[in-house]
């Protein structure tokens, strides 16, 4: 579990630093660029569409893990809009709460139920 946690910290750190540089040089105007690339029907748009689908799956998994309660829906939206920055922090915290149990980490307490 320690290598996984180190990877999560590395991902969180790298994305935080990279995002800081991008925001400093280009500002926070992400959405027109993101959807503009998709409207262009070229490889950058294809990547953005694929990435957005992965964000949707991530958000659905997080919400499902919390049984689609109010907190689960809020966390799912955070996963969708926060991307790997959110998910790396979420999984790091969840890995400690699950005490290193991968089944508990993935299922969020849904495992071993009759």
Sum up the structure in keywords.
114 residues, mainly alpha
Secondary structure: elements and pairs:
Elements: H1 2-26, H2 30-39, H3 43-65, H4 70-97, H5 102-107
Folded structure, characterized:
- By secondary structure, this protein is an all-alpha fold.
- The chain has one domain.
- 81% of the residues lie in helices and 0% in strands.
- It contains 5 helices and no strands.
- Helix 1 crosses helix 4 (70-97), helix 2 crosses helix 3 and helix 3 packs across helix 4.
- The longest helix has 28 residues, at 70-97.
- The protein is globular.
H/E element sequence: HHHHH
The stretches of 5 or more residues where confidence is low (pLDDT under 50) are none
**DSSP helix fraction:** over 70%
What about the largest sheet?
none
Alpha-beta classification = mainly alpha
Beta content: under 5%
User: Could you tell me the mean pLDDT?
Assistant: 94
Radius of gyration: 16 Å
Shape: globular
Note the gap between the termini. 27 Å
The number of helices is 5
Write a brief caption for the model.
The chain has helices spanning 2-26, 30-39, 43-65, 70-97, 102-107.
């Amino acid at each position: 579990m320690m290598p996984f946690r180190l990877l999560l910290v590395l991902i969180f750190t790298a994305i935080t630093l990279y995002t800081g540089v991008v925001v400093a040089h280009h500002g926070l105007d992400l959405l027109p660029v993101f959807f503009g690339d998709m409207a262009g029907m070229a490889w950058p748009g294809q990547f953005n569409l694929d990435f957005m689908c992965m964000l949707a799956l991530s958000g659905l998994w997080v919400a499902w893990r919390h049984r689609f309660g109010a907190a689960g829906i809020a966390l799912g939206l955070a996963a969708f809009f926060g991307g790997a920055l959110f998910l790396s922090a979420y999984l790091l915290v969840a890995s400690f709460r699950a005490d290193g149990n991968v089944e508990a980490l993935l299922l969020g307490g849904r495992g071993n139920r009759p």
